[in-house]
Design goal:
This protein has helices at about 1-15, 20-35, 60-65, 80-90, 105-115, 135-150, 200-210, and strands spanning about 40-45, 75-80, 95-100, 125, 160, 165-170, 170-175, 180-185, 195, 210-215, 220. By secondary structure, the chain is an alpha/beta fold. Bound molecules: S-adenosylmethionine (SAM). S-adenosylmethionine binds near residues 57, 80 and 129.
Length: about 230
């Protein structure tokens, strides 16, 4: 209990530095609070710059959170860039297993191991492969491949979060305040949906009836396997 208070004391001190990710990180920790210990988090794309909270500092946040949830809670992170994993190892505690590899290959191997030793993952945080906002397909396809690699170990409660996935929609200027505010067009389809890194995962999630848990700058789903 007191470790949990220590985490939130630390987190609320730095949370305003997280910019547009502040709200969704709060939603992530609230969701994790509702899950039983141990908390197991698997991340793709690790912290790559010390103190750069505008990138997320996700590995550091998850490290601090897992430490507050007892000794069997643990973080696994992977990044293809050895420079990034080197920086990450210098910043986080020994409770984080940092691996240099391609994320899809890594997640596939990890899923086989976790299936064998019955490790239940609380959350996957997918944040590899930077997105080109004008051409998000390569990044979105990579994150869909990551989902394919982990699909067999997703339980109904496993939260899958993808960074850089804000809602997108067809908008028009609001006639009363042209240029200042916008309204959502009800036609043409599609209505607002998830964009960025998570847009293909969201299409898949919608097809199979997975649940969108929240949509902010980051998007999160569960119930991929009911
Ligand atoms: C946006 S950064 C991660 C930021 C980090 N999550 C944070 O909050 O500070 C994306 C990272 O994904 C890594 N990356 C790109 N392609 C990858 C791949 N195929 N496998 C694993 N990592 C990859 C990059 O090297 C980069 O460090």
């Amino acid at each position: 209990m007191s470790e949990s208070l220590d985490f939130y004391k630390w987190f609320y001190n730095i949370s305003s530095k997280l910019g547009q990710r502040e709200i969704s990180f709060k939603k992530i920790f609230k969701y994790l609070d509702s899950l039983p210990s141990p908390i197991i988090i698997v991340e793709t794309g690790c912290l790559r710059k010390k103190d750069n909270f505008l990138d997320g500092q996700s590995t550091l946040l998850f490290d601090k959170y897992a430490l507050s949830r007892g000794e069997n809670s643990k973080i696994y992170t992977v990044d293809i860039n050895p420079e990034a994993t080197k920086v990450c190892k210098e910043v986080v505690s020994k409770n984080v297993e940092v691996t240099t590899n391609d994320s899809v290959r890594y997640l596939n191997d990890l899923s086989s191991n976790f299936l064998k030793n019955k490790t239940k993952v609380s959350m996957f945080y997918l944040d590899s492969f930077d997105v080109d906002w004008r051409y998000p397909y390569p990044s979105a396809a990579h994150h869909l491949k990551e989902l394919v690699a982990i699909n067999r170990i997703l339980t109904k409660d496993t939260l899958v979060v993808i960074d850089d996935s804000p809602a997108v929609g067809n908008l028009t200027q609001n006639e009363n305040e042209p240029g200042k505010s916008w309204k959502i067009l009800s036609s043409p389809s599609p209505l607002p949906t998830i964009g960025g890194k998570g847009f293909l995962v969201h299409e898949y999630a919608s097809h199979i009836g997975a649940k969108l848990v929240f949509s902010h700058y980051q998007a999160a789903w569960n119930k991929f396997n009911k």
